[in-house]
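> call design_seq(struct)
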C-alpha cells in the first residue's frame, strides 16, 4: 500500500496562502499537517485558530493538527470546532494525556499522541486504546527544515509494533526531515503517514515529490 502524505503548512509561503493550498490539493497529498506552536512547549511560535479558520475554507483535505503547546486540554475543542479531522498532542505537554485523548475523540476527531526525540516511546503503550495515530518526531519539534535525528528511527519500529498488536488500524506518522532520501527508511520501519514541509513546498513540482513520498519503501 502507498504511504499517506501529510503536507506541513509550516513551510508554505503565507503571502500566497490561497495558491499554496490549491497547490497542495492538486499535488495528490492526502492530508494537510497544521503545526501549532506556543513558544513555551517549543521555542517557537507558529500559528493558531484564525489561520486554521482561513485555511479550512481554502481546501477540502482532512486537516491533521499537531499541537506543540502546553495544556492542550484547554484548546482541543477549538481546533475540533474549526474542522480538524485529527488532533495530535504531545505526551510531555500534559499531566493527563488519557483525558486529552478521550476529549479529542468525544469531539468527533481522531486522536494522536506524540513524543519528543528524548522521550521513550514505551510511555505510549498504556494509552494505545485511546489513540488512532502515533506520531514519532524525527527532529526536535519547533522548526521546519531540520535533518532527521538518527536515534529517533528505532521508535518508529516500536510504534509500529504497538499499533499492530492493538488489532486496530493505528497510523504511525513520521514528522521532521522527511524527503526523497529519508522517506524510504521511515517507511520501511513502519511509518505509513509521512509529514513533509520543506521538501514539498520547496519543490518546483510538488506532485512529483508527493509521488516520491507515497512510493518510498
Ligand atoms: C516541526 C514540525 C514539522 C515541520 C516539518 O516541529 O512538527 O511538521 O513542519 O518540516 P520539514 O519537513 O521541513 O522538516
Ligand atoms: Zn508537525
Amino acid at each position: 500500500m502507498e504511504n499517506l502524505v501529510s503536507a506541513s503548512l509550516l513551510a508554505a509561503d503565507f503571502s500566497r496562502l490561497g495558491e499554496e493550498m490549491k497547490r497542495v490539493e492538486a499535488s495528490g497529498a492526502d492530508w494537510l499537517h497544521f503545526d501549532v506552536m506556543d513558544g513555551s512547549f517549543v521555542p517557537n511560535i507558529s500559528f493558531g485558530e484564525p489561520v486554521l479558520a482561513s485555511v479550512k475554507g481554502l481546501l477540502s483535505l482532512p486537516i491533521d493538527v499537531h499541537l506543540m503547546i502546553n495544556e492542550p486540554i484547554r484548546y482541543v475543542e477549538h481546533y475540533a470546532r474549526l474542522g480538524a479531522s485529527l488532533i495530535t498532542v504531545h505526551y510531555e505537554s500534559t499531566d493527563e494525556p488519557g483525558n486529552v485523548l478521550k476529549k479529542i475523540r468525544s469531539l468527533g476527531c481522531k486522536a494522536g499522541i506524540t513524543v519528543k526525540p528524548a522521550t521513550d516511546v514505551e510511555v505510549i503503550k498504556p494509552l494505545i486504546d485511546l489513540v488512532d495515530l502515533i506520531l514519532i518526531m524525527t527532529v526536535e519539534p519547533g522548526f521546519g527544515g531540520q535533518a532527521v535525528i538518527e536515534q529517533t528511527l528505532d521508535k518508529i519500529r516500536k510504534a509500529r509494533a504497538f499499533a499492530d498488536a492493538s488489532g486496530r488500524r493505528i497510523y504511525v506518522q513520521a514528522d521532521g526531515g522527511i524527503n526523497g532520501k529519508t522517506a524510504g527508511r521511515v517507511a520501511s520501519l513502519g511509518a505509513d503517514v509521512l509529514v513533509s514541509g520543506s521538501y514539498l513546498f520547496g519543490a518546483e513540482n510538488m506532485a512529483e515529490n508527493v509521488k516520491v513520498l507515497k512510493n518510498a519503501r
